[in-house]
Amino acid sequence: MAGASGGALAAQATNGGGFGFISAGYQPVENLIDELSLARSLLETRRSTETLPIGVGYLGWLLDKMPSEESESLLNAALTANVQAFWFSFGSDLGRWIRHVRENSSAKSPLVFIQVNSLEEAIYAVEILKADIIVAQGIESGGHGGNYAPPLYNLLRDITDHFSVGSSHKPVVLAAGGLANGADIAFQLTRGAAGAVMGTRFLLTPECKYTDAQRQALIAAKSEDTARTLAFDHARGTIDWPEGIDGRGLRNDTVSDFEQDVSLALIQSKFIEGTRMQDRKRFLVWAGTGVGLMDHIMPAKEAVKELHQECAQQLKLSNVKK
């Protein structure tokens, strides 16, 4: 959730009973330090020696691209803050950064989350990278992911089946992609997931860094209004994603122009102006396929509680039917 999740959102998600993440994204280390400090103040965990019950997410390809000292400083900022978890995705050398975290952490090593889009990636994450938790991200997910990913239903089944019979180690597996409410979470739990990851739902919170116009675009959207595309990456100049990775967002004129081979210079100029004017026909709004079921803005802390209540109610109903 680069550009969307900062210290306020991560802290309030944790305060509600979930587990929040700050995205390191494209920001300089000073910004990340500020967001970590904000999270600590909102969690009322002020002493630097205390574990910070949130995580930080990193784009592996961006760490790979940076000078080593810059990449390590981003990781060290989270290590110094004693965050409880690190999330890695989309990189060809994730093992390097995971080793840095494990070799430079305090006595209690933080949890390592690795996002995967296929069974092969899950096996590598568990057996080679020794992930503590893997996030199975289906093709329905908003934001960036593998355009080769199967639907979440199939991906989660393949991963849980493999590690139930084909491996001595059974990792914690979280489900991600197109989830909109507590009933969706309950369904993933019944299928073997240990928990669920949600992104789009938390864009509709006041703590998210999205603008009011972006949140209103999400509320107005139907699930069929999303599209997987590289249009927004070309429009904003973030085109170094690994092969096979694109992003799901709300379809608009930026996407249409890109598909119709309009000149990149024109796409970029219209995108910049549209972002400045907060024009939903042009600006970027990442969203998963569950967006059509989301119709209200709610503080992150309350959103987590609502999702938990919906999930518990659905599981109770399921047990009654049995």
From TrEMBL:
The keyword Lipoprotein does not apply. GO terms for molecular function: nitronate monooxygenase activity. SUPFAM superfamilies: Inosine monophosphate dehydrogenase (IMPDH). This is NPD-domain-containing protein. Keywords: Flavoprotein, FMN, Oxidoreductase. InterPro entries: Aldolase_TIM (IPR013785), NMO (IPR004136). The keyword Phosphoprotein does not apply. It comes from the Eukaryota.
